[in-house]
Amino acid sequence: MGQEKTEQQFRAVMQECRTLFEKKLHDYGASWRILRPSSLTDQLYIKAKRIRSLEVKGEAMVDEGIRPEFIALINYGIIGLIQLDKGYVDEVDMTPEEAMDCYAHYAKEALELMIRKNHDYDEAWRSMRVSSYTDFILTKLQRVKEIEDLGGETLVSEGIDSNYMDIINYSVFGAIKMKDEG
């Protein structure tokens, strides 16, 4: 029962993210195609740091809360996966339709990974604190920075793409919990 509910909630958050991504794609085009991997990592980092800052301080000076930052982490995580696959460019080279196809591909991969891991971990995420997701995301981003500094040459560790997938999934869990608790 719980895993079916999780899949339904996960799909709902991903649809929310997709809708926002599509609207921003309309407004800005695929301008994110120019982002180099390190810039994308830094963008994810500032979003996660803002979440942690808001959790610690308990108040925001800018009228956006924690949940929108989780949504941004999901969308930037998918952008990161696209960029890892396609590479960055100097000029936008992707139509909105192509961008949405790529988005759908990685959103589906994230869902499938969550289903497999949730089966193995037996809904453990539901017992976690949202602040733990934030800390895990920041840890994953630190790992990505280290891997980038190593030029992608790791000895035993998973790659940047796996870390991005985990960031997406922790962010979805955060968005679900924030909606349930809010």
Protein architecture, described:
The protein is 75% helix and 0% strand. The protein is globular and about 45 Å long. α1 (2-28) packs across α3, α2 packs antiparallel against α3 (66-86) and α4 (96-121) crosses α6 (160-181). The two termini are 23 Å apart. It has helices spanning 2-28, 37-57, 66-86, 96-121, 130-149, 160-181. The mean pLDDT is 93. The longest helix has 27 residues, at 2-28.
Identify the notable features of this structure and list them briefly.
182 residues; mainly alpha; 6 helices
How are the SSEs ordered, and which strands pair?
Elements: H1 2-28, H2 37-57, H3 66-86, H4 96-121, H5 130-149, H6 160-181
In short:
Helix content is about 75%, strand content about 0%. The chain has about 180 residues and is an all-alpha fold.
